[in-house]
Automatic annotation (TrEMBL):
Pfam families: Lipase_GDSL_2 (PF13472). One of its GO terms (molecular function) is phosphatidylcholine lysophospholipase activity. Residues 67-233 form the SGNH hydrolase-type esterase domain. InterPro entries: Ester_Hydrolysis_Enzymes (IPR051532), SGNH_hydro (IPR013830), SGNH_hydro_sf (IPR036514). This is GDSL family lipase. SUPFAM superfamilies: SGNH hydrolase.
Amino acid sequence: MKSSSWLWRILGWTTLVCLLVMVTGFGWALKDTWFPKTGLALPEATAKPEVATGGDWSAKNELYVAALGDSLTKGTGDATGKGYVTRVIDLLSEQMDKPVYLVNNMAINGQRADQLMNRLDEVGYRNALGKADIILMTIGGNDLFQIAQNGGSMAEGGDLSPELLSERLPDAQPRLETVFHKIRALNPSARIIYVGLYNAFYDLPEMVPASNTVAEWNDYAFALAKADGNATVVRRTTCSNLI
């Protein structure tokens, strides 16, 4: 296979840049979801909602955010030391005109969904997530890419095997589902914001299988969020794409 080490050298930085471009629109999306502008025609409320509403944030004097996942949420590689979590919190506080506090950023470099599943049973995770109004999360990239490398890790310039990437998808998806379910059990009302995997392969003809696998992962995450009823997936096919 033709070496893809050059791709991995730019993938991490490209993803971080995309996250920064995304933050402003991300903040506005959250604001419009929870604080619609006066005059908008909204559906009439039912006596018994079918899904969680996420609480009445407009009545709260302050909001609390918890973050968890992998290196992207931890902010690794950001020269300013802020990462997207801090930027999102700052923007939300500004746009909502109220304090927004970080309960804890529990993200760990290199973390996989199976590791996060186990850590969600720890008291620290349970307490932080239980207090949050908003939960930010990235997870899954290491589940797929760590085990799809030939000839070494990304940093060592190992080749990416699209075949291995595709083979591991069925095992990784249920772990993501378990993470969603565990978080929801710990906090029935918090809004879960899952940042999907950036698809760096979509315009590379030789990497179509890998692109399809990443897209399938993001589609699966979107289905989980829809089933949850109080979750949002930020799915990026370009740097500015926000769903």
